[in-house]
Amino acid sequence: MKLTEYSQSALAEREQVLSQQYAEYKQAKLNLDLTRGKPSIEQVALSDALDGILKGDYRLADGSDSRNYGGLDGIPEAKALAAELLEVDSSQVLIGGNSSLNLMYQYLDFAMNHGLDGKDSAWKHTGAKFICPVPGYDRHFSVCEALGIEMIAVPMTGNGPDMDKVEALVSSDSSIKGMWCVPKYSNPSGETYSAETVERIAALSAKAGEHFRIMWDNAYLIHDLSDQPDSLMNIMAACAKQNSQDSVFVTASTSKITFAGAGMSFAASSVANLKAFKAYLSAMTIGPDKINQLRHVRFFGDLNGVKAHMQKHAALIAPKFAKSLECLEPLADKGIATWSRPRGGYFISFDSHLGLAAEIIQLTGEAGVKLTPAGATAPYGKDPENKNLRLAPTYPSLAEVEQAMQIFALCAELASVRKLLEA
Amino acid sequence: MKLTEYSQSALAEREQVLSQQYAEYKQAKLNLDLTRGKPSIEQVALSDALDGILKGDYRLADGSDSRNYGGLDGIPEAKALAAELLEVDSSQVLIGGNSSLNLMYQYLDFAMNHGLDGKDSAWKHTGAKFICPVPGYDRHFSVCEALGIEMIAVPMTGNGPDMDKVEALVSSDSSIKGMWCVPKYSNPSGETYSAETVERIAALSAKAGEHFRIMWDNAYLIHDLSDQPDSLMNIMAACAKQNSQDSVFVTASTSKITFAGAGMSFAASSVANLKAFKAYLSAMTIGPDKINQLRHVRFFGDLNGVKAHMQKHAALIAPKFAKSLECLEPLADKGIATWSRPRGGYFISFDSHLGLAAEIIQLTGEAGVKLTPAGATAPYGKDPENKNLRLAPTYPSLAEVEQAMQIFALCAELASVRKLLEA
After folding, report:
1. Chain B partners within 8 Å of A284 (Cβ)
2. Disulfide: which of A132, A267, A269, A314 matches A273 by Cβ 3.0-4.6 Å?
3. Which CATH number does A69-301 carry?
4. Whole-angstrom Cα distance, residue B202 to residue A383?
């Protein structure tokens, strides 16, 4: 029965029950953390063989020495592996350092301050706006803020961003210079962009002003929770059909495949785009860590090696997602919230229908369960409806996830009951 | 006897002898490279134990896990080691990725485009000029060019930059926002700044406009060729005496200690400076590769470990420098050139008194010996006197160094003789 259909006295009664449970949790002085999409200890341990895998053999297939200088855009072996993962040609690949976020920042700094096609093309001359599908990834929004790129929120639909809105915006304002996308198992909604969405995104640059760029953060490209993964249309292939390959900058990394923050990142784009970007990069670095690239290549071998490795991750985290959803199930008929049932990625996205995100975070925090701050999934940290919450169940143990999610569900209901009592 | 004192007929005779030797070298079709300061295969092999050194133990002393996210400015163990190396407090240290050049670029981008002390303080608002001691490091100059910082050349004296000139410039033009320094075994002159120079540099910010910064690239801080190393005054201590700690940004890396391009970089500055810089960095990265930091810490233990390791490097490269100087010795009484006799670092700096740098590079190139392009050691790649050449003897084998340097000495003399014949 929906809480909205409860009488005030029934609500008051329910409030008492929940408050008492809540008080008990509070007394337990727990310390649980669902804030960030971090792999667990067991997950990172899957890659422990990385250190030492070279066994003194630092030579690349082309005979060069990974221990010395040289190679602005990565070793050929790493490019080949990244090309397999991204389903592109290795000439369309660039290897970065330990952070794909860093590649994204650099690419947007390049576009904003240096110019994708010479100094005069720098976005700073006209100002730049970016379309930000919401809910989205807080660090994307931070990059825009740091670089002075204005953000325009567009809602997600379940099949990706609302493309009618996106197309209307892009067509009507040439200072919109690009768009953020997490196209598979999107952070945090978990949805995967439909083929139609991908095709419409590949067509955007024809409607947009000059030097428009799609930031295609394929962070969860192979991060499936089941053996029936979502299928994402290849954006580079979709762009090739429409001759818009220059308009997309694809990124991914092994941060949630091997070691978080000690893996390798990679990017894909047109050969022309990469050439221009490399000229920008050449002023600031000799190139990324080639030895770590070689370790990764030796560790995986090829795409099949990566896939087999990801099944081990899924075996560790799928039960945590299942348990989380199980804990949320009692809320299902209460009419106070909806949430995602992700088939991959790192998050459950939770929408409070009564606009109580901040209140729920406050309650759970006081009961020892840390959540991502309210508003984190929206540009400028401000969720106008105060509804979206991002839950990250991968890092804690299964028992901790269960406890944390039970408290979360309790707090979500308690906040709602109290809100309805006020009404 | 000086070539300038030769009669024209004696010059012509000498030209014939040298030309014949040169023709023989040319026929040998050699392929030797003295372009960049790269460690040799034997040098990088000194660090082969890095891969595998963790033996499955990825825990830090504070109990945290190097395999997971977190830590924008490095692990405490790495900070402690860097602090020992730089002779500062570990609170004044930040660990970067695999490239100190990247830290320098980022710091100057921060100052230029974002502002050392808030947006209004960004150098871009007034324009920025930098003092560049010449001869200097080409990649420093590239950073300035990429960021739109105008370069002003100031000559080196043997004790560091000409401080009378530097002080006069800084006092008279508040748009001079900083200065590059390679204070020990300077690239390429090999000189180490005297204590007086360091003290005067530490006093510069009092004479300069707001937000003035010394880029103190201590790339060769421990790269001694003998057991009687040069001694460099501690810039942070010198600044502390003058209350100018905010005016210096010190960088160094292990790139020429362990693996070139796969080591760790570090910076030192005032706590306030680092705090502001970290806020800038936080938008673009979760942090540098902690596992590689941990490898380095385990590999070295402490400063004594680094010192013992550097002695092995010296044993490998000191003979190459000695051989190079031996090959140049026949030029000593000819009055056509002078060169450095470095006690550390990676270069020999060679000045052609007749302004024949480009011609010498051309001649050696045609005989199969690649040298750094003429002008590389000056801002904008333009050496107005066409005199300075940078020789990097570390990478080739001792036999190759000997051959390359014999050819170089021959070409230097041949170019000079031909020039005098024209006169």
Report:
1. 99, 101-102, 105-106, 143, 146
2. A269
3. 3.40.640.10
4. 48
